Amino acid sequence: MQRLVLQFLLAIVVGLCTSGAFALSPAPAEAKILVHGDSLSAAYNMPVTASWVALLGQKAAQQSPPWTVVNSSVSGETTSGGLARLPALLTHHQPQIVLLELGANDGLRGLDPAAMQANLAAMIELSQAAGAQVLLIGIQLPPNFGQLYNAEFERVFKALAETYQLPLIPSLLKPVELEREAFQPDQLHPRAEVQERLMVPVWDALQALLLKHSATG
User: Fold this and answer.
1) What are the domain boundaries of the chain?
2) 40-94: per-residue pLDDT in tens?
3) Which end of the chain offers a freer environment for a tag, N or C, measured as fewer CB atoms within 10 Å?
């Protein structure tokens, strides 16, 4: 009789488990931020851990729930190269937020701002189609490129932010742009010592996207 009772109880437990009453909830998907940029985000000529992206990653990891920052930035990258690489990155990492920091090399090479705008627009649309929010990070060119070209270049970022209703950082380098000593000898790339100053405005702009994700996720 006791054996029959034990078998009966075991059958109940097995039935409950298979019905899902005691099934474990699936682990929540890891929250990811993809930083897709060029050498300004790729720790150019400095330890990776010193870059503004790494510093951003440290702050993101301290959030509740924590966020993981994935850096897909490549030195020398143009918007056309970034566009070519982005679909595979979105599929692999499935980020909830994309920080798009590209265009500087298009400008330094004197490429057509209209083509740059089309490439950036395509990356924004790809990111949004994958379910990611986008933070657009622009850059200002040195004055020697001419007032007309520089104006057209900067207009691209403003136009995209308006069209797609995106948060925009007009220039990643604004916190240090007037300080020659803040840059490496090439006067294009900031030194490791000022990377935190670059990170702070990005982190501030990112807050709204993190809150929005928490509210909807």
Assistant:
1) 36-216
2) 999 999 999 999 999 999 999 999 899 999 999 999 999 999 999 999 999 999 9
3) N
The one-letter code for the residue type at 188 is: L
Q: Which of 39, 75, 80, 171 is catalytic?
A: 39
Cβ(160)–Cβ(117) under 8 Å?
A: yes
Note whether 34 and 177 are within 8 A (CB). no
Q: Could you confirm whether 39 is annotated as catalytic? A: yes
CATH architecture of 36-216: 3-Layer(aba) Sandwich (3.40)
Q: Are 138 and 157 in contact (CB under 8 A)?
A: yes
The yes-or-no answer on residue 92 being catalytic is: no
Q: Is the pLDDT of residue 10 over 50?
A: no
Does residue 29 have a pLDDT over 80? no
Write down the pTM of the prediction. Answer: 0.86
Active site residue 112: no
**Diameter of the chain measured on Cα atoms:** 95
